[in-house]
Amino acid sequence: MEDLGWLGFLALGLIAFGGAVLGGLSGFGAGLIVTPFLVPVVGVKGVVPVMAVAMTFGNLSRAWVYRDQIRPDLILRVLLPSLPGVLVGGLIYDVLPRAPLAALIGSFLLISIPLRRWLDKRKVVPTPAAVIGISFLFGLVAGALPGGGVIVVPLLLGLGLAGGALVGTDAVIGAAVNIAKTILYGRLDLIDGPLLIGGVLVGLCMIPGAYAARFLIARIHLRIHTALIEAMVAFSGVSFLWSAFT
């Protein structure tokens, strides 16, 4: 890990807080926003493992904030098929070198914007087969890349969730997936002590963001914050692609 000094880590903490606020409003975006700012600190290869640790804290805090609206019956339906996908995705992440990995992350970030819009318009039909297939795809993406909410959120919407129930249920699923990722990355020697500490620090900065999001969720227009997230994600994607080819 690079030493950015106190000002650098303070800025990173503020970005993590802001990402948690935006993610808490919609169920996606937190990890995608924070990811590019971690690269100068942990490098491209360390980004996804650090975010796995950080998003465990971020998701647990969101789950606690919306604990009274969580739908336990839907959690296992999505979580069980997603875990094998996490394993496959993690193994793919382990073997990719830095440049292709940066290109893959950047491409995913850019593709996630039209993908989310397309999935929202398509209105995912939650048949049992669709739930299994989409959940596995979610796990595969989450295991290899710093995100996955763009895939699972439309599925949860199709299963009838909205508002706090959507954010809370998604948070429980996300926490479980990120715990599995952290364990897997540890077994693959992708997480060492400094990366673990860095992930914990970023995750702790995300906790108050969940409470701020609950305060704002009824006070901000969804289109405004969605546009802001998409702009940040697009900038992040271009940044990763630039680093891959320079």
Could you walk me through the main structural features you see in this protein, from its secondary elements to its overall organization?
The chain has one domain (5-244). The chain is mainly alpha-helical. Helices cover 83% and strands 0% of the residues. The protein contains ten helices and no strands. The chain has helices spanning 5-26, 30-42, 44-65, 72-95, 98-122, 128-144, 149-158, 163-187, 193-216, 222-244. The radius of gyration is 16 Å and the shape is globular. The longest helix has 25 residues, at 98-122. Belongs to the 4-toluene sulfonate uptake permease (TSUP) (TC 2.A.102) family. InterPro entries: TM_pro_TauE-like. It holds the Pfam family TauE. It is found in: Cell membrane; Membrane.
Number of helices: 10
Q: How many structural domains?
A: 1
Largest sheet: none
Q: Which overall shape is indicated by the principal axes computed on the Cα atoms?
A: globular
Number of strands: 0
Along the chain, the helix and strand elements come as HHHHHHHHHH
Mean pLDDT: 81
Give me the secondary-structure category: mainly alpha
Q: What ranges have pLDDT less than 50 throughout 5 or more consecutive residues?
A: none
What is the C-alpha radius of gyration, as a whole number of Å?
16 Å
The end-to-end distance, rounded to whole angstroms, is 21 Å
Helix content: over 70%
Strand content: under 5%
